[in-house]
Design a protein that fits this description.
alpha+beta
């Protein structure tokens, strides 16, 4: 039993030494990268975050434009369905204005 405990203690010490070596190597690598890039780790992180934010904004704007285009297409298709089959126009009341649908073109008249 005592031998097992001794072996476990030795393994813990070895693991601790290896952990310290790994941390030291990571620090050296970070220092080398900072020297090569001319940026600190914090500056590089900030640039990466800003780049990701810009990309997310661009993707969101693109997605919004797709939704708007799809909504316009659906509105035009729905407007075509609402036209009377034997007439080229159909009228709707919109407040003080009369709105007339001519095929897929919407003309608002006072």
């Amino acid at each position: 039993m005592e031998q097992c405990q001794q072996r476990v203690d030795n393994e813990k010490k070895l693991l601790s030494i290896k952990q310290e070596e790994l941390e030291k190597m990571q620090c050296q690598e970070r220092t080398k990268l900072e020297e090569l890039s001319g940026l600190s780790a914090e500056e590089a992180k900030e640039r990466l975050i800003e780049s990701l934010k810009d990309e997310a904004r661009t993707d969101a704007a693109s997605y919004i434009n797709e939704i708007i285009d799809e909504a316009k297409l659906n509105a035009n298709q729905q407007a075509k369905k609402n036209c009377y089959p034997n007439h080229s126009t159909c009228g709707y009341r919109n407040g003080n204005r009369k709105t007339r649908l001519v095929c897929s073109t919407l003309i608002t008249m006072k």
